[in-house]
Amino acid sequence: MKKIILYILLFLTASCQRSEIPLYSGTAGIYFEVYNEPTAGVYVRVDTSVLTFAYHPEKTDSIFALSIRVKGDTVPKDRQFSIKVIDTSANAAKAGIHYEAFPTTAIVPAGKASVLLPVKFLKHRDMQVKTFALCIQLLENENFKTDLPQLYVPDTKKYISATVHTILVDDALARPKYWLDGYLGPYSRKKYVLLCQLLDIPVATLNNTISVGTVKYYGNFMKNYLADEAAAGRIVYEEDGSVMKMGDGL
């Protein structure tokens, strides 16, 4: 009986030693790890992200940091990885116009399992009427494989690309949820931006819950401003050449 117990202990010891062997060997893999926050505090992995300049009219550029992760063990040396831009779509963003061109290689630092790839987007007038797409693909090289082409996302019950990430960029300021024509008049981008600048409020204000009384105050403020400008010989016009007006309910 003692011999049987001894054999069992020897077997368990050997099993524990074997479990210390790394589960992953060979060339490491590389993939995108980007999350969106559709609801406060809830993060969902995505292969498409959205960047808009609409709520920050003062900005002329914006940096989007793409998270890239390594599959496999870390190593004590820098490792270069390769990327390329897929620009075959009709709405493909153009380097030098919609974003700053970036190198086709980057580095995963020694001892690290992830890295951020910063992409600098440039605001351009045509973004007000069109959404542009920047598609970035990870490529295999001597350091990394791209053998994880897709990932399953339980939250959405869908598969997403792990090696291609698309960033949609625009400057389209849509009519906000709480824009009331009776006080603010017909919606226009120019009027909305001017209102926010004069009142020093965030552009997202009228998309958040707001009282009717506050919207009426905004309307009266703008009405007085437009009247003062007109009296000084500086009539404010809309983009289409018509005189900017507020609502009839004031």
From TrEMBL:
It holds the Pfam family DUF4843. It comes from the Bacteria. InterPro entries: DUF4843. This is DUF4843 domain-containing protein. It comes from Chitinophaga niabensis.
